[in-house]
Description:
Structural class of chain A: mainly alpha
Shape of chain A: globular
Oligomer: homodimer
Distance between the termini of chain A: 26 Å
Number of strands of chain A: 3
Strand order of the largest sheet of chain A: 1-3-2
Amino acid sequence: MKDEKLEGILYYLLEKVNxxxxxxxxxVFDEQGxxxxxxxxxxxxxxxxxxxxxxxxLARALFKDTAAITRxxxxxxxxxxxxxEFRPDDKRQVxxxxxxxxxxxxDVMLPTVVEIRKKGVEGLSTIETEQLKSLLSRMIQNLx
Amino acid sequence: MKDEKLEGILYYLLEKVNxxxxxxxxxVFDEQGxxxxxxxxxxxxxxxxxxxxxxxxLARALFKDTAAITRxxxxxxxxxxxxxEFRPDDKRQVxxxxxxxxxxxxDVMLPTVVEIRKKGVEGLSTIETEQLKSLLSRMIQNLx
DNA sequence: ATTTGATCATTGATATATCAATTATATGAA
DNA sequence: TTCATATAATTGATATATCAATGATCAAAT
Lengths: 144, 144
């Protein structure tokens, strides 16, 4: 029963840290008047980093399923942050690029996102952060 | 840039561990033929532990918002796992109890859920698990 | 050349998350 | 007693997650 309690709390904290992290990010975005969600930011960033990327590559990189990606991209196309382009060498694929607006949004947001991320690990040493990553990775391996 | 990369990966892993954990649980539930989601299980368990609990208490305990709880409970009432009861001393509140079916489901599932939880922390010592909890708690404090 | 198997993006159905707003009820202050 | 404030549950709107299924396209096998 004691052991069960221990792991139960661990899974609770994993959910909670994700939720508070998401909430904190979104709050800052909203305060800045940025019309974008945290998940849309992750997509924006990955496209910015890669310049052009297909949806399935994006899904893999972000560990999201392609249905979710399709929906997120749809919203970002509507917001004129992203555009889809035909890909002649493989007609199954669509290529994603940032619009000028998207690129500007990325440039404007990046410094703030860096600060947001740091906020979460304030007071944790690099060693502790590495430890955390290592422990999480081991959990992922156990469950995949 | 190096620092940014480090934290970015950490947040990615936090999301990923939640997803693989949820997926693993749900896979086992489905294999057992249990018509219940992971979140519904968490609700079932909390009601079982408390015998009777209000929705707002449940929401707080599970760190979920009351809108989400209302929806989850609606589904569980439909599945005849949970019932709502009037509460004469405070007409704003509804009290949640398990049905017999719900109690049986809880009893049947508990040992398996215990195993599922252990699966995730296989190979982690108690000390490491405690460390993980402590690190997560510090992150939560930073972001709340 | 044809068939089989794999891949890509999308759609549908369902579940949950989140914020805002609403109505009813309870509590505290004046 | 009345009014102001707080609380509980629900609903609405929007976002994302997940699994299954689908149609189009590509690659490999026959």
